Structures are given as structure tokens and as C-alpha cells.
Amino acid sequence: MRILIIEDHLSLAQALKHHFSDQGHAVTVVHDGEAGHQFLTQEGFDLCILDINLPYLSGLEVLSSIRTIGIDTPVIVLTARDSTDNRIEGLDAGADDYLAKPFEMAELDARVRAVLRRRPTNQPEQVQIGALVMDNKHRQVSYQAKNIGLAKKEFAAFECLADSQGRLVSKSSLMNYVYGVGEDVNEATIEVLISRLRKKIISYGIEINMVRGLGYYLKADK
User: Fold this and answer.
1) CATH number of the domain bearing residue 83
2) Phi, then psi, of 142 in degrees rounded to 5
3) 138 and 102 in one domain?
């Protein structure tokens, strides 16, 4: 899952980033409303965690703007203000949920799960990729109902390539999908990741082919 965190409190932003990255998600962090608005309008995210008090544009201004132009990315609003009026204001602006600071990460995880259940996507829980089954809900890949043991980043790379099956995915797009936009990740890192993933799936009739200088594509036996 691709998560955008818009939070100007640097230590909290980093804590959120590490928390969701450790779960295998691609996390992009920005620290002001203008940058957050730009990312939401130009990039595709599965979830946004949005602080209210931001430089340049407030969280409510960002939220109202994206909803006005039809962007329906699920948004959980974070704020130090917990009055009923503040919650109503956030929800009326288009928030899917509202969480007051300070909070426990376990509660945020529960809110994320609830928001995603209420905002179902067209993505099926399981997808057949050749001989393998990709389970999007549990984030694992199995063969004949047995988990083949992909690491979290390996699953994210497999997911990205599988979603574009047969089409070329550039290295930069793959890096953004797996690690988050703007992360300091070089091409060698993604090459090592793809090499590990390739070794784990080749015996199941699934290949990851590289077009030098352009990117990768996945090919599965029928």
C-alpha cells in the first residue's frame, strides 16, 4: 500500500514512516500543506495521514481542495484539537476519520483498517499470477495454499510488477512504489531486491525480465 504522510512535526512524521514501512508499505513523507497537496494531485496513494496544523496550506485547506476536484483518496486527519466542533469541521471537509494527538500506533492501525474497509477498492483480495496466488489482504504469495515466503519489500515489488503484468515498469516507478516517493534509494538497491525476488519465483514459471536502461516486466506461464 502507498501511504502519504503530511505532518510538520518531524519526529512524529519519522515515527509514522518507520511504523508503516516496517509493515511493508511504501511511505512518502512531506512536511507542509503545499507539498502535500501537490503529491495528492499528482501521485496515486492508497491512504493519506494528514495533520491539520501545517505551514503554507492547512490540512483542512488541502482536504477541501482535493475533495472539490474529485480525489477520493482515504484520509485520516491528525490534530491536537479534539473538540466536537473541530471533529465536525474535519469530517465535513471530507476526512474519512479523525484522530486526536497524542495517540497509540495500535489505535491508528485500527483506524486505518476501518477506513479501508469502509472505502473498498476494485482490487480483489486474491489474484492468480501463473501458478501463484497473490493475497492482497494478507500480503503474501502462495503456491498450492503454501506461503512461498516473500519478504515485505519483495511482496511490494511483486505486487507492483503483477499489477502491470506484461507491461514495462520503470526502475523509478518501482522504487517509488516499494520505498516511497523521494526516498534516498539508488538503482543498485532495487536491482538487488529484484534479484532476490526473481530467485524465489522462477521455479514457479514466473520470470522478471529487464529491459536495460528502461525497467522490468513480469511474465507468467499460462
Assistant:
1) 3.40.50.2300
2) -130, 160
3) no
Residue with cell 499528482: 42
pLDDT for 49 equals 96
Range of the domain at 61: 2-118
State the total domains in the chain: 2
- Give the DSSP H or E segment for 142: strand 140-143
Instruction: Specify the pTM.
Output: 0.73
Residue with cell 484520509: 75
Tell me: the pLDDT tens digits for 25-83?
A: 889 999 999 999 999 998 888 999 999 999 999 999 999 999 999 998 999 999 887 66
Residue in 209, 113, 203, 197 with CA at minimum distance from that of residue 158 = 197
DSSP, res 32 = S
Sheet with strand 140-143: strands edge to edge: 126-129, 132-135, 140-143, 146-147
